[in-house]
Amino acid sequence: MSMRVLVAAHNHPALHPGGTEIFAHDLFGAYKRAGCEALFLGATNQIHRQARPGTSFQGIGPAGDELLLWSGHFDRFFMSQIDLYGVVPDIAELLRDFRPEVVHIHHLLLLGAEFPHIVRRTLPQCRIVMTLHDYYPICHHDGLMVRTSGKELCHGASPDRCHACFKDIALDRFTLRERHLKALLSEVDRFVSPSRFLKQRFVEWGLSEDRISVIPNGLPPRNAPAAARRVGSDRPVFGYFGNLNPWKGVAVLLEAARQLIAEGLEFELRVHGGAPFQRESFIDEITRLFEETAPTVQQRGPYRREDVADLVAAVDCTIVPSIWWENAPLVIQEAQALGRPVLASNIGGMAEMIEDGANGLTVAPNDPRALASAMRRLAQDGALARRLSAHAREPENIDTTARRYLDLIEAIEPSRIEAA
């Protein structure tokens, strides 16, 4: 299926290997394998690159079909692109030069919520698809839908509730923010959610249910990992994979491990991931917990995407203890693809991917005692672990995911007649 597709995300996995960036880039590759002429556009700022005078764009990658949009001026509250004399005309020029038939947006950060409107104004007949990866349009708290105090899960946004989290921001500004974002998102032809849970959150926020399709994320094809599962050991190995931050539940996991060590349970926990851009208080907390739980708990640091399959294959169970409404963590798919059970929090998209007692175990979030209990069950019941492994659910291949997206795109009726 041949068409020109612009894939746009809020960064590039070579600079910031988050789940959204990784999936967007994987799908970009799958579009190319499907016969599309594709261009990847990742927005970044001074955290990863410095500006280059005279242009908003910088090259990245060896093939010449990947660009960075340097966006150093951005209103995070309104998710608004405020560089009207630099970034905005440069985006329009890129669109006129490449003339995509499809623009596939994966995030609005740094790109700006105006991005769909710029596409529509520049290329009126272009089809616009947006994958919803988190809750940024709904929630100013970094798209987490977690209260700013007490880590309480938020079940729905409203100007009053949002103002209670950010008392220094006037209540009416939250009303304006919501109207601003909904108006600009009205230019999107179809939304896609990787989970039913995330779709429902956006429906409750006000997006039309008919405009949101559910397409699970897929994984790229890969060679079998070199590492083999440890066999015949009575010392189970647990693994954590991902950035270390308060919302990923790392402190909860370390506290659970500390409790199990105190009662004498024999196990090993390998924590893979770095802690970029975290507050000093959080770093101090996890440093203390790592010191108290060593050597049973091993802090193994950041890892490359290319190594994740070997690292996951080398543990008996992957733990995803997030305390926010995770949508579709790639690490769950990585573990399930390798036949590993997953121990995850029973909220958000995680609860859709892991069925308690079937292909893993689920526990209440932010509860070290409950997490320790589940880890103990897996450590002491080899038959349970083997049964959960046997029922691991193979995720879709990214090429199948791309075909699902292309079928969705083909079905979009051009509803706007070219005015120019």
TrEMBL record:
Residues 17-220 form the Glycosyltransferase subfamily 4-like N-terminal domain. InterPro entries: Glyco_trans_4-like_N, Glycosyltransferase_grp1. Pfam families: Glyco_trans_1_4, Glyco_transf_4. It comes from the Bacteria. The keyword Ribonucleoprotein does not apply. One of its GO terms (molecular function) is glycosyltransferase activity. Keywords: Plasmid. The keyword Transmembrane helix does not apply. The gene is wgeD. This is Glycosyltransferase, forming alpha-glycosyl linkages protein WgeD (Formerly ExpE4).
